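Listing S7. Sequence submitted for prediction.
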Amino acid sequence: MDNLSNKLSNHFSYCWEKLCRQAISGISINSFNFGLARKWWGNVSKNERLEIDLIAESTDGRALLVGACKWTENENASRLIFELEEKVSKLPFAVNKTIIYCLFLKKRARDKVEQMIYLPEDVNKMLR
C-alpha cells in the first residue's frame, strides 16, 4: 500500500505540473501575453544543474513567467518564491527581463506572499 501511495503521489504531481503549464500557455498577466509554458532544466555552470517546473516567455520577449508547481500540503510560499528567485538569478537568458513569479499549489500556503498563487480551482478556470 505504501508503494502504491508513493507512485500515486508522484503521478498526481506530474499531472499537476502538466495541467499548470497548459493553463498558463497563452495567458495575459500584467499586460504581458505569454507563449507556451514548459518545464526547464539545464546547466547554469560547470557544477550546477537547475530545474524549473514552469517557465513561459512573453510574446514580445520582455518578460518571463516563472513558477513552482507543488502537489503537497502545508507549503511555505515565501521559501518557494525565494528558491525561484535564486534559480532565476543564475539564468543567463533572464537578464534584463521582467520576471513574474507564481506558485501553483494543491492547498493554500501557510504564509502569505505578494506573488500570484494558483490553486486547483484557479487552474481549472484557466483551462476552460
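Caption to Listing S7: primary sequence and predicted C-alpha cells for the chain studied. Helices lie at 2-24, 77-88, 120-127. The chain has a mean pLDDT of 94.
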